[in-house]
Design brief:
The protein is globular, with a radius of gyration of 14 Å. It has two helices and four strands; from the N terminus they run βββααβ. A hairpin with a 3-residue loop joins β1 (about 10-15) and β2. It has a four-stranded mixed beta sheet, with no helix packed on it. The protein is an alpha+beta fold.
């Protein structure tokens, strides 16, 4: 099941007790979000989460990493 919500700039979503997602910017068909979560919460872009870590590493020319943190602010 998927929950679909509409949000305006500055509005927030709270997930559980410790993850807050804030809509920070909307420009055309692009939405920028800010994520406030504990350091132990892995945050990955969807297109990267489905690829094996070794494949991502080879494509990026680096070493394997457990997760990719995107525009995240950790509490």
């Amino acid at each position: 099941m998927m929950l679909v919500l509409s949000r305006k700039v500055g509005e927030k979503l709270v997930i559980g007790d410790n993850v807050v997602i804030t809509v920070s910017k909307i420009s055309g068909n692009r939405v920028s979000i800010a994520i406030d979560a504990p350091r132990d919460v892995s945050i990955q872009r969807g297109e990267l989460a489905s690829e094996p870590v070794a494949t991502r590493s080879a494509q990026q020319g680096g070493t394997a990493a457990a997760s990719v943190h995107v525009a995240a602010h950790h509490a």
